[in-house]
Amino acid sequence: MTHTAVAYRMEDRLQREFDELVYRYYQQAYNTAYRLTGNAADAEDLVQEAFLRAYRFFDRYDRSMPFMNWFNRILTNLYIDEYRRRGRLRTVSIDETFTSAEDSEEGVALDLPDLAPNPLELALSKEYVEAIHEGLQYLSPEFRAAVVLADMEGYSYEEIAEIMNTSIGTVRSRIHRGRKQLRDQIKKRHPNLFERGDLK
Amino acid sequence: MNCRYVQSRLSAYLDMELSGAEQQQIRSHLEQCIECSWEYESLRRTKQLLRQMPAVVPASGPEQVLLRVRHSTPVPRRTAIFRWRAPRWWQYAGGFALVAAFMLWSQSEDPTQNADALTPTNFTASSPIFTYPVSPELSSAYRPSSLFLFRRSVNPITEPALMPSVSYSVDPVLGYQPVNSWSEVPIEPRMVETLR
Per residue in A140-150, pLDDT tens? Predict the structure, then answer.
């Protein structure tokens, strides 16, 4: 077999491996991108750009690390860079308008503490989903990325530190401050979610 | 242990990212302090809300990504030799050294020594070291770039394309002399597919 034939074989193998990864993780990657960017168009751009970059540097991907950890590193950094470049432009789509908190007063208040053992039972109502999604957009990109990676993707602090290329201490403070800011934002729209009852 | 200290660690406590001892300390504080308990509870609810966020369905599938990937540059395959790159200032220094060496070398050449070699056929005369006699046909004055070194035929069926060739004739006085001429471009042997 000639040298070029071997090279082609290698290229083929890598190509197929990459294709499989794209198929497997596209949905998950899109979700993260959507929560970060806040709208579908930017999310799609971000995911495509991130996959393109991943493809370009695929030979540097260390197989001992889960693909999504490596990929999220690319995606997160790309997102934070892009956000800075755009000069903190806030993009909120028109159809994501807010319904005021007043019309959801009639006892829809979720008693979240009760659901702790089985959170899968609860489907969030549309208003809450919107409130959380909007609330996320108020956070700075670093805080938002840290919170999304921790609470939606389920990464450990150590993994997030690796993804965001910072120390665990920074991750801890970003998550803490991000969560507090998010809580305050959601509370503004839906104070019933955080009203004090009896603690168990 | 004061409330401020506890409250700064509530998220880490919630995520079980503290050491065992610290985790224990904060738990025992929360049992006594209602204010900190509420703070903890609100953060726990926030985390839970985020966990329950539904997945969004993208408008386009992974095909779009793969399509873009196909049209991009292929996966670079690098060997260890090419991975090393000199620091930026080394690269500059290397470039500078090259230019300096070239300048010194071109100055050491005495242009008057080559005077007899300079003939009116020099079309590329720009600096002494670059002058060498070429036939006008082959000089750059006649061809915009080396790509057009070949003379293309106007009608490729009736007349062949020409390529420059140099032959050496023996002159009784001057010895071997180059003779520039045009010759036909040899036709490539065709690959003929035959059935076995």
Answer: 999 999 999 99
Measured between CB atoms, does B157 come within 8 Å of chain A?
Answer: no
Residue A123's domain comprises 93-200
A115/B48 CB distance under 8 A: yes
Q: State how far the Cα of B81 lies from the Cα of B8, in Å rounded to an integer.
A: 49
Question: Quick one: which H or E segment has residue B176?
Answer: strand B175-184
pLDDT at B103: 80
pLDDT < 70 positions in chain A: 1-10, 87-123, 197-200
The pTM for the full model equals 0.59
Based on the fold, state whether residues A105 and A134 are members of the same structural domain: yes
Are the beta carbons of A175 and B11 separated by less than 8 Å?
yes
Encode pLDDT of B79-102 as tens digits: 555 556 667 777 788 888 888 888
* Domain assignments of chain B as residue spans, ordered by start: 3-51, 111-184
| Bridge partners, B169 (sequence order) | B177
Interface of B with A in 57-86 (CB under 8 A): 57-62, 64-66, 68-69, 72-78
Q: Which chain B residue has the Cα nearest residue A130?
A: B53
